[in-house]
Amino acid sequence: MNPNDLAVDVYVAPMRPFAGAPARGPGDDPMWSPMSSTLIAGAEEAILVDTLITRDQVDSLAGWVRGFGKRITGVYITHGHQDHWIGLARLQEHFPEARGIATPEIVERARFEATDPNVSAYWKASFPGELPRTPVLPEPLDGSEFELESRILRAVPVGQGDTEFSTVLHVPSVAAVIGGDVVYNGVHMMTAETDEQTREAWIASLESVADLKPKVVVAGHKSVGAPDRPEIIAASQQYLRDFSRIVNEDHGIEGIVHAMLELHGDRDNPRTLWHSARAAVARRG
């Protein structure tokens, strides 16, 4: 590695309980999937990608970041789900120069999640007393590129991930992609906001990530210690294909969960799979 190259390091907050509905089947205990925040660092300055959720998580992240001795100048947000940006307020207490940035569509989704009474209530109820009283939203990115110590970082709007208007952050100089919730790594994929058509769009989004020819791919939800290899792109595509096929076989909720666990039982957090299966069955009407 050239000493002048940017460095990519990944912090993973482990799976943890949250205040969700009680389990209604094996593995349905209310657990939040492990999450990553990525540090992209030059010689003196660095940015983070995504923020984690709770005060304790962000405080632990900040302690890890300080160990690198860099000046944190920004936080890029990959998509609008609160678990990827709600920690921005706490993070800025640690790193006041760290300006949150995102594409305009993601800023609007974040604003919706912060102001819609039902969505906001969900997050507050899930993590009672652990979220900031006044959320800090990311600011809209001007264009699709920005620089870190003269190296280009590129926001790539791939479209569909586990929610709409998803992006990945491409770091061309080191052939890295920080994938947010477009790509998953060793964790059950959250498909509750998708139907078969949007899952096909998600598979296409993953193909556009592969087209970047990355050597490093960091998933927003990844198992602790899982390597950040490009093979997780194809694995994510296969998971989505399997989920759609099994849903189309007209299984009930438990049948979907059982069939998916037969194929993907080594992934973390079946709670997410239960949630996705319920949403898929509800869509049938």
UniProtKB/TrEMBL annotation:
Entry coiled-coil feature ranges: none
InterPro entries referenced in this protein's UniProt entry, alphabetically: Metallo-B-lactamas, NDM-1-like, RibonucZ/Hydroxyglut_hydro
Pfam families, per database record: Lactamase_B
Signal peptide span: none
Domain of life: Bacteria
Domain called Metallo-beta-lactamase: residue spans: 34-221
The protein's name in its UniProt record: MBL fold metallo-hydrolase
Lineage: Bacteria, Bacillati, Actinomycetota, Actinomycetes, Micrococcales
